[in-house]
Amino acid sequence: MAFVRAPSPFLLVLVLALSISAAITATTTVPQPISDHHRSAALNLFAPSHGSFPSLQDAYEALRVFEILGIEEKHRVSTDTCKVVLENLSSLSSSLKDLFYALKVNGILKCKVNGEVFEGIASRLNASISDASPLPDLYYSIGGLVLIKDQDSNVDVLLADATGTFQSIKAQSQSDGKWRYSSDKTESSAYAAGLAFEALAGVISLASSEIDQSKVNTVKHDILKLFGSIEKNDDGSFYFDGETVGGHEHQDSLSTTSSVVRGVTAFAAAVSGEINLPGDKTLGLAKFLLGIGVPGDAKDFFNQVESLAFLESKRQVPIQVNLLFKFVLQQYFFSFCFLFFSANVTLDLSWCRVTIPLILSLPETVYSLTTKGQLKVRVSTALGSAAPPLVVKLVRAFSSGAKDSSIIESKELQYDKRSGLHVLDGFTNNVDVGTYVFVFEIVLHDSHSKQVYATGGQIHMPIYVTGIIAVSNAEIGVLGDLGSVQTKKALDLAGNDVVSFSANHLQKLRFSFQLATPHGHVFKPHQAILKFRHEIKVEHVFVIGNVGKKFEITLDFLGLVEKLFYLSGKYDIELTVGDAAMENSFIRLLGHVKLDLPEAPEKAAQPPAPPVDPYSRYGPKTEITHLFRTPEKRPPQNLSITFLGLILLPFLGFLIGLLRLGVNLKNFPSSTVPAAFALLFQLSIAAVLLLYVLFWLKLDLFTTLKTLGFLGAFLMFSGHRILSYLASTSTKLKSA
Amino acid sequence: MARSTSKDAQDLFRALWSAYSATPTNLKIIDLYVMYAVFTALIQVVYMALVGSFPFNSFLSGVLSCVGTAVLAVCLRIQVNKENKEFKDLAPERAFADFVLCNLVLHLVIMNFLG
After folding, report:
1. What is this model's ipTM?
2. Taking the CB of the first residue and of the last residue of chain B, which one, N or C, has fewer CB atoms within 10 A?
3. Which positions in chain A touch B97 (Cβ < 8 Å)?
């Protein structure tokens, strides 16, 4: 096969690879249920500093996460936290939020709280419920009363005007299913809707008399309207978008979604009758929550884990008993659900809860044909607990390149009790190396489970099968002008032997080899590249095309002369064969070819410069030769010395002249004090002159001026003394 | 004619010399000092003319120190001269103190400019 220009097949292969990977990611990402990673992350995130938590809300979040994940950590912190709880509950100045969270923490830690304390709080909370309270305050008050009801059954917490409270909360609902925070706000939010649903559920459970069913039904419609505004991702996960409402902190999508989940599951647990939420929505919510992975923030972690727990409604009641009751009641009351109180749990439990999502996950998605493993599938709830009895069916498996033809159809996976996984043996016999999409379906055993759990229909999972590709029949040779074979050598690509050729520009080089999968099919790797490297490190890359199993490339040097920059000499030939599904990808030096090419014409392109060693950028640079200004011509030394002597002549003349004039020192004072001053005067002048010489030689102006200041003062003083003495003596002489 | 002019020049010179001899000694000392300073300046100018003015600041400071000190000496002479009515009340010692001070300031500046 003639060689093709390097760029375009490359691009083609690249685009193909990208589209394959895009196709795989577009179908599903594989959500993993909660695992031990989460548990260890929880221990790190929620570790209290010095045994106590920063606030009651943080304490509650930590304790609730530990409770859901089954981590036995609470004993260490219980005494300190209980102290804080008791303080908050007894104090009269605690806010509604603090009371709420203190009661929540107490619900988990079960600190010893006095009945009177509960009564005091209950009356406070009851008093704070009014029509005009904003939604968060109503939420905390009602929530607090529900918690007191669970923790101390003797306290009277029933609402005086449950219907009125219900109405006032309901009044804040908007037509799109969202809720306002209070009547004087105009913006609505889904987060507020979640708070409202939970508050309404609390009102229903605290009502002394039954709330009108029509009101409850309108709330159910509101829930469905709210779910109408749910956002959907491509992979089938559902979530509520984050929002910012004026005056309240921004809630991101996770906290909004978890608020709605909390509210809806609480409401579903409190009412009778079904809320017709489609199963794919709960599964989608679970997928969104699991898709976050292990959150790094404590609040996100709490929201994720608590929402999953609510979706799962972990409170277990023997299913057989439920079934019996339902069967008996359905005989008499068609599709009428009955509230069932359990002696063990303190919260109401209803069968009409939101459906529990079941998560299908794969412990591993890459299978090797050489190790011949089993296909393993795990089905569990989002929190990682066991699923009900079910069967996993492999509906079909197809190669991601050929969606229409299935390779495997309708197989049932066997359940392995020891590992808790569903396995399929021997699937590697049917599949070859490549990427596949396996379509699974979960089939629940009994009809009751079908109403309780959401399975999500057909689930597409990407599977990668790798294997060892057989490389064989490698031949390299030089062909003459008309295709006649002049030299040909066979190569064992598994070994290390190299070949050596010489060729001129009139000849061609042909290289061919064969690739086959373990099952003997055609295999086209992402990379099948031949590289020519010249001695001066200039490289040329050629892509090897294939016809079926045979890969062949023919390099016609006559046409390549310009591309090779007319460089003759020894070229190294290197072969690269690689693919993600190939376990034995390789780069191999095939050999050398000594090319004899004609001389380059003047206008030929120059070969590119050899790549600059990147480390040389930080090495020492070339030395810069500084060009100094040519120094001025100085006079010869002798001339300068001569003139130095000449300069001294006038001075000598001055001295001689002074002598000739008869200069004397008769006026020098004879008595000691004036004499001393006279001497000091002369000496200080000499000192100043010496300072000037030093200044010229080495001192700077500032030191000079400083010293001059001292000397000058001294000079002035002594000069003044001696000169005033001389003046006085001369005036005395004059007057005398 | 030439003889008379040269004789006249000689007579003039002698007259000047005798008149000058009458001046007080301290004035003669000052005159001598001025001559010394001027000669030093002249020699520096000749040197500069010979070798070029490369460190011009040095040349200037040298010449100006001589010229400056000469000027200050002339001022001193004026002030000290008893025949000068203008400075009758000024004590010569005071004039000398001024002379010393001004010279010191001049030479500080000269030394800075010398380089």
Report:
1. 0.90
2. N
3. 719-720, 723
